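Weekly sync notes, structure subgroup
Attendees: PM, AL, DS (notes)

Item 1: joint prediction request from the bench team. They want all four components modeled as one assembly rather than separately. Inputs as received:
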Amino acid sequence: MAEPTQRRAETRQRILEAAGRLFREHGIDGVGVDAVMKEAGLTHGGFYFHFGSKEALAAEVSQSLLERAAKTWDEISRSGDRHAALERIVRYYLDPERVASAHCCPLTTLGPDVARRSTSRKAVGGALRGMLDALTRCLPGRKRQRALTALSTMVGAVVLARLADDPALAEAFLDAAADSVLPAGRAFNHTASEVEQEQV
Amino acid sequence: MAEPTQRRAETRQRILEAAGRLFREHGIDGVGVDAVMKEAGLTHGGFYFHFGSKEALAAEVSQSLLERAAKTWDEISRSGDRHAALERIVRYYLDPERVASAHCCPLTTLGPDVARRSTSRKAVGGALRGMLDALTRCLPGRKRQRALTALSTMVGAVVLARLADDPALAEAFLDAAADSVLPAGRAFNHTASEVEQEQV
DNA sequence: TGTACATCAGTGAACGCGCGTTCACTGATGTAC
DNA sequence: TGTACATCAGTGAACGCGCGTTCACTGATGTAC
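Output from the run, pasted for the record:
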């Protein structure tokens, strides 16, 4: 059956995904190696067979989560017309249900954690640029500056929506951000269920 | 000399400020009670004479940091003309030097940490609304929605600037955010040294 | 004014616990002859 | 084709350490008479 190196890679991937879930939910410092391994269905001792340290795992998790986002945005930005692509990205990113869950963008759940760790920060640079490139491609005028602002607005809105003590205020942040990023005149609609589930 | 209850209050304040510095720099989970007390010039045992638990300290630190910001914004928003007030708030908030330091806005350094702790989240709600009120007062048209967007853009830009691996990219986020939040035509200037140092 | 006692802020040793990491091991799978 | 050995993914006990919290204590300050 499964070639040995392939099995190893699969287990490694399972650990990476378990850590991705737990780190986003509790913060990197809020989750131990044993909890990650348990979530992956393993015992904690085997961790160091796959990763050199918890820091190395943190860097790789941040990188892989953001690269997945960048890849999805890139694909969407090249498909169909630009207005539809932008709306698809923004609508999914700011979907209130997703924002309230642990599946929202790692920039918003792990941003400060990543910023404090130089290895993680470096690991994430390429994907960050990739996300900006995709946004630039969709935005009217294709100006880099507009992409920088759009990403800032989206990230900030999600951070603030997660922090708000009141769901109405949370939705207000998300709605305002969508209105600001999407070209005027396009109504923003809450349900993102038609959009594919695995965008990031 | 110092009345007894006053001395107690002063020590308490010293702990609060020490924690404010360390929590913003290393995250709440990245700093122990003993480190906070040492930073305040005390031994760790006395901590529980002033606070019920580390969680209680975290909530109070978040609250006091944000309330100071809200108070400053409120004062600025009522002083002089609105355009100047807005520019003063935005320019200081997005000052690259301050963003690179640990003194930047707690929403950007502790946002996800606070969002995960319901006591901290509740403690912070009032100040968040206060910041929005102050922004609304300065913004052309005084529309709440514009304030929601402006705060999102500013918070996101600082999160992303701190996360960026390259200083040029960091400044690009901050510049783009300033251009977007300030009414068109007003050039943004990096040095915030003329602005008072203790704004937040 | 001076002594005796009470209060109170802060000390520092100690607690149980969970962390990140190491390591000797097991048992399943792959390879050699 | 069958046996003997090597490899390798994962186990689970153990390590030293630092965490959050407790507590008996000290020594300075304030109050009573």
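Discussion: The domain at 1-52 of chain A is CATH 1.10.10.60 (Arc Repressor Mutant, subunit A).
Action: AL to compare against the crosslinking data before next sync.
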